[in-house]
Specification:
With about 325 residues, the protein is mainly alpha-helical. Helices cover about 70% and strands about 5% of the residues. Helix 4 crosses helix 7 (about 230-275) and helix 5 (about 165-195) packs across helix 6. The longest helix is centred in the first third of the chain and has 50 residues, at about 5-50. The chain starts with a helix and ends with a helix.
């Protein structure tokens, strides 16, 4: 893929993320705000009913209260039982919306944030149908370009145009170790300093995110008790992109290694077939193919014995 085409795809991709983030911020943000406000009124009515019946509180009222609070959490509703007050948090601010758009097109899909309105779900389907192919084409080209640069660099260092399979395996091993250190081990240390996680949790999240498994049980930048810097989620998403690009490079190197190995294996087999002539012998009206050496003087005793056995049979 041409560098200019690849650069154009990268620019289109980030524009696509920003536009998608703005759309989801408007559509789902307004929907969540409306639902959260409706839930606030409903819970206020239930609390008023409970206050009016302090002597005998109906169990159904308590069940309704807990159920409403539990269901409303997905809309950004937070209830404080100490003060008996509620607040509505905007989950669909710009950074969160762009982050969500990125998890859609990369197929990570954490599930901690998702469209709940019919319009938002329809937009999400259309957005994914266009964004996922765009992301796939861009990252395939990006991984191939980075892998090509790595191979050229390795060729210049060795000063050879051709490399043995040992050097290729060594190159893949070194790049894989770099991937593990730069994309998993070091980022996990940084996550521990920003998130209330253990190192094991951070390493688990790093692997689940970059491999696009995305369970959603642990997601960066979502702890309500932690104050994050404004661009924290955007930085996390760029790290995911970098990690996935690095992983695409490793996969491309491994794929090229097996392709070249397979081509060389086929070429060797073909050369052997072309070098060794085949002599046809006719015995009792049937043809038998026997491989003969180029020179009768090069035959070993074992070859002569095998040929004698075939002729006698």
């Amino acid at each position: 893929m041409n560098w200019k085409i690849l650069l154009g795809l990268v620019i289109c991709y980030f524009i696509y993320l920003i536009v998608g983030g703005i759309i989801f911020m408007i559509v789902e943000g307004n929907y969540d705000a409306q639902k959260c406000e409706e839930t606030t009124h409903t819970i206020e009515n239930i609390i008023f009913e409970v206050d009016m019946n302090k002597s005998a509180i109906p169990i159904t009222s308590l069940l309704d209260l807990t159920q409403e609070i539990s269901n409303a959490e997905k809309y950004g509703f937070i209830f404080d039982f100490t003060t008996m007050t509620s607040t509505c948090v905007n989950n669909w601010h710009f950074e969160a919306s762009v982050f969500f758009a990125g998890t859609v097109v990369t197929t990570i899909g954490y599930g901690h944030l998702y469209p709940k309105s019919h319009l938002g779900r329809a937009i999400c389907i259309i957005y994914a149908l266009i964004g996922i192919p765009l992301f796939t084409i861009m990252f395939t080209g990006l991984g191939g370009k980075i892998a090509g640069l790595v191979l050229k660099l390795e060729t210049r260092i060795n000063g050879k145009a051709t490399r043995t399979w040992v050097s290729k395996v060594l190159l893949i091993t070194v790049i894989s170790l770099m991937y593990a250190v730069l994309c998993l081990l070091i980022p996990s240390i940084l996550f521990v300093s920003f998130e209330p996680w253990s190192y094991e949790d951070a390493l688990y999240y790093s692997f689940i995110s970059i491999t696009t498994i995305g369970f959603g049980d642990i997601v960066a930048g979502t702890d309500p008790s932690t104050k994050y810097i404004p661009i924290y989620r955007i930085m996390v998403y760029f790290w995911i992109l970098f990690g996935m690009a690095f992983m695409a490079t490793v996969m491309s190197l491994i794929s090229n290694f097996f392709k070249e190995t397979g081509k060389k294996g086929k070429k060797r087999i073909q050369n052997r077939r072309n070098v060794v002539p085949k002599q046809k012998d006719e015995v009792d009206g049937e043809e038998f193919e026997t491989e003969a050496a180029l020179d009768d003087g090069n035959r070993t005793k074992e070859d002569e014995n095998n040929l004698y056995i075939k002729e006698c049979s």
